[in-house]
Amino acid sequence: MSRQQDTPRNAAEPASSAAPAPHAAPAPRAGASRMRRVLTPLLTVVGLLVVWELVVDLGIIPNFLLPTPVQVVQALVADISLIVGHAATTLVETAIGLLIGVALGFAIAVLMDRFEGFYLALQPLVTISQTIPTIAIAPLLVLWFGYGLAPKVILIVITTFFPITVSLISGFRSVDPDVIDLMRTMNASRWQIFRYAKLPAAADQFFSGLRISATYAIVGAVIAEWLGGNSGLGVYMTRVRKSFSYDRMFAVIIVISALSLGLMKLVDLLQRVCMPWKRAEGNKR
Amino acid sequence: MGAGVTAAEKNAASGTGHAPALEARSLTLSWDGQTTVVDRISLAVAAGEVVCLVGRSGCGKTTILHALSGLTRPLSGQVLLHGEDITGTPGHVSYMLQKDLLLPSRRIIDNVCLPMLLAGVPRAEARAKAEPLFERFGLAGTEEKWPAELSGGMRQRAAFMRTYLMGADVTLLDEPFSALDAITRVEVRRWFCDMARELGLSALVITHDVDEAVSMASRVYVLAGRPSEGEPSHIAGEVRVDHGTGKGDFALTPEFLAAKREVLALLG
Q1: φ and ψ at A162, to 5 degrees?
Q2: Which end of chain B has less Cβ packing within 10 Å, N or C?
Q3: Which residues of A touch B103 (CB under 8 A)?
Q4: B238: which strand partners?
């Protein structure tokens, strides 16, 4: 058994120096210079923007249908103070909804992991809740809870708890049962097994779930705002759409993308702080 | 739960006159509560003695260790620690598995301190107890490292140190070296035997490797049977191993070969 397990590791040494083994293939990509890794996607984006600009400038697509990138940037700069104000509203909704969603998702996952009955009872409901299209229930939420903060937060909670619950449950279950047995021989309590083994084992998947939830949260907020409210990026978007200023609409889309990206980076940062052992594992590979 | 050092001293002091450190009396075990896997086995480990239990894969060796460690309850029979009944209650004997099972999210020092932390010993106190042992276990300088940064052999040594710091009188080891590559395995095994002698460890080692059993133990229990084919395992016999002077390579002596032949004959 041990020999079988060790074969790949031992075999890797001669393989890397001699014939190109299949698993040696990704090596050149990993070895690509940092410069090239940054430059290639950057040039792609710049190239696409140039094509976009030309397509409109040359009249292939009429300007009243599609603004040029330059016009979009101009609109963004002109409206920036207005957009920042709306973005603040959206971010507050996102933060509140995401926090509640994560807390709820966490609580459900812990209960489902701890009690078999809970798992059996909630498993189908949790899945079904995800098949409900967000856009379809948003108007109902506005109808029931008005134009204020409540419908937005509720919509975000509904869309964000699921990735958290699912990732945590599979994370909790990824613990080697032998670790649990070993801890039981040390008289560990259920809480200790959770704290020392299950929770850290689920951390990786939790952050993957959180990354998804974070982007869902912003999109959820914007969708809820489309259907009613006094401020927020979704409200602003509806207004500029009604006045046919597509350049400003594109500007908002850029802002929404940037916020999502920022939030994902924030999750990455949080993960690096919470999981210092991950770097050690990364170096090994 | 005291520190491991006191347990070792206790072992050295208790001598051999009294009840064995660990004793199993007529254990009958099953996987599912119905089909018998292990039929009325009895075995004993004296204080300061390393005993091996050898048998084929799938003959219920791990099932026996689970019962001895108290993780599961036997259908019938008793487990005694220094004559005291500990059947079905975990926490009395240390247990080490083939996999090192170090928690990836804890530094090495916190991993080896785990049994003390679980017992409610404050972290600073547990660390203070563990720190002086790193040198002795060949792990000096790894205290603040993550498990992923250690080699397989070092991880297994750390796992053994954690087992030792559980401070129990008897240690059960389930194929502790079989996940290591052949060369590291021999090294770590030799190191383990030296440590066991030095610490006065009472240990029951389970293995399917006859060479390993004969080279480590003063006594070898041979487990025979095929539970998956409806033939429960039983102890086919017990082989005493004369390690002689301990000089030279024991694996090349006629005593080693004689003991090995005897074990193989019992395995059938």
Answers
A1: -65, -50
A2: C
A3: 179, 196-197, 200
A4: B221
> How far is the C-alpha of B206 from the C-alpha of B59, rounded, in Å?
11
- Model pTM score: 0.78
CB of B148 within 8 Å of a chain A CB? The answer is yes
> What six digits make up the tokens of A202?
């689920």
The DSSP code for A194 is I
* Three-state DSSP class for residue A184: helix
Q: Do A280 and B91 touch (CB under 8 A)?
A: no
CA proximity to A95, closest of A148, A164, A153: A153
CA–CA gap between residue B135 and residue B141 (Å, rounded): 8
What is the ipTM for the molecules in this complex?
0.82
> Which fold would CATH assign to domain B19-93+172-249+256-267?
Rossmann fold (3.40.50)
- Closest partner residue to B146 (CB to CB) among A183, A184, A280 is A280
In the DSSP assignment, the letter for residue B205 is: E
- Ordered per-residue pLDDT tens for chain B, 268 residues: 444 444 444 444 444 456 888 999 888 888 777 788 888 989 999 998 999 999 888 888 888 998 999 888 888 889 999 888 988 888 889 988 888 899 999 999 999 999 999 999 999 999 999 999 999 888 999 999 999 999 888 998 899 899 989 888 899 999 888 878 888 888 888 888 888 888 888 999 999 888 888 888 889 999 988 888 888 888 888 888 887 666 667 777 888 888 888 888 888 7
Q: With an 8 Å Cβ cutoff, is A181 touching chain B?
A: yes
Query: Taking CB atoms and an 8 Å limit, are A179 and B101 in contact across chains?
Result: yes
* Residue whose pair of structure tokens reads 């958290």 in the numeric block: A164
Are the beta carbons of B39 and B234 closer than 8 angstroms? yes
Q: Is A285 on the interface with B (CB under 8 A)?
A: no
Query: What's the number of CA atoms in the CB half-sphere (13 Å) around residue B227?
Result: 25
Interface contact flag, B95 A185, Cβ < 8 Å? yes
The residues, any chain, with a CB within 8 Å of residue A237's CB and separated by 6 or more, are A222, A225, A226, A249, A252
A275 contacts in chain B (CB < 8 Å):
105
**Beta bridge partners of residue B241, listed in sequence order:** none
Q: Judged by CB atoms within 8 Å, which residues 96-115 of B form the interface with A?
A: 97, 99, 101, 103-106, 114-115
Question: Rounded CA gap, B124 and B114, in Å?
Answer: 12
Nearest Cα to Cα of residue B39 among B226, B204, B263: B226
Residues of A in contact with B115 (CB under 8 A): 186
